[in-house]
Amino acid sequence: MNKNNIPVTRSSLPNIEEYMAEIKSIWENHWLTNMGPKHNELKDALLKYMQVDNMDLFTNGHMALELSLQALNLQGEVITTPFTFASTTHAIVRNGLEPVFCDINPNDYTIDVTQIEKLITDKTCAIMPVHVFGNICDVETIQNIANKYDLKVIYDAAHTFGETYKGVGVGNFGDVSCFSFHATKVFNTIEGGAVCFKNPQLGKILYELKNFGIHDEEEVRAVGANAKMNEFCAAMGLCNLRHIKDDIASRKVAVERYRSHLEGVNGIKLNYINPNVEYNYAYFPVVFDKKIFGASRTEVQDKLKEHSISARKYFYPLTNSFSAFNGKYDVMKTPTALHVSKNILALPLYADMTLEDVDRICEIILTCAKK
Ligand SMILES: Cc1ncc(COP(=O)(O)O)c(C=O)c1O
């Protein structure tokens, strides 16, 4: 890669010697997958780091979501948002459930809690909100609504690894919270994911579901899937976890540098900062108002591309506009999500990003502004 190229993200990796030392025991015990020693060691380490009592590891964040919905044995409608990755909506649909799309709030792009109740029908079984870009949903209001109508809450927490809200690990909210440890995430196990859950009984069901529904040698109790994290992925997680605090600290420095250039620029909206949240600095999304700023997000993206810098329209398009759904959903019912998805750009951000690169990106963006 040309050294002037800047990718939108770059996976964190330990040095190769550290990883080789970590996987050496796999050659000694020949245990490659099926809940081996690395899997269990990583699980124990993550329980501590994420400050939760119950969690299990999965092959990726999507299977964590899909099997959580299956484990809760839901039927009917699930209230969710379309401003998310395909995975959230697909997990609902692939479980034979019906997504009902709620709009997002323009402040932090999470579910607009003032609009949830009017979407509840006698078929509603759950709410599946997304902690977008590390912004934690209004967990208190969501739980109050869920209690009032006896609904389950499943958080898509793919973006919030290691975060806390009012000092509490984010995986403690709702019935279930699902995390992604994909290569592009703040913490990666190459591919991987986790489910944090309140009810230990649910954990037993999830454990069986990730292993084909096998209960014991002679009984298969459910139509499960294969969603086990293998030993090489768990070993990568063990290495990356040793460096996570430094990685997040470096991301924070890059985010502060971005803010020092872009905060207060007319026509630019930066991510909202909630003083109750300990952030992981996963993303740096910017919403452009062309009329005020002087350039659209696509024009900014194109200008950056001319300089070999990748920025991503994220999340775009909305999941309720996917051609996979053949026009079944009306995007005009979620106007704020539509507006944000058309004007947002995620700027490059990763742990070993240099501040010179942040400066260069901001300089190019600011040349697009109205003079
Ligand atoms: C919001 C969201 N949900 C779910 C997923 C799915 O996670 P995974 O890629 O680990 O399957 C991702 C990321 O990829 C995501 O960003």
Outline the structure in words.
The protein is 37% helix and 15% strand. It is α/β, with parallel strands linked by helices and 371 residues long. It has two domains: 16-242, 3-Layer(aba) Sandwich (Aspartate Aminotransferase, domain 2), CATH 3.40.640; 244-367, Aspartate Aminotransferase, domain 1, CATH 3.90.1150.10. It has a seven-stranded mixed β-sheet, with helices on both faces. It has a three-stranded antiparallel β-sheet with strand order 7-6-13, with no helix packed on it. Strand 6 and strand 7 form a beta hairpin. Helix 3 (61-71) runs parallel beside helix 4 and helix 7 (231-262) crosses helix 11 (355-367). It is globular. The mean pLDDT is 97. Bound molecules: pyridoxal-5'-phosphate. Pyridoxal-5'-phosphate (PLP) binds at residues 60-62, 84-85, 87-88, 130, 156, 158-159, 180, 182, 193.
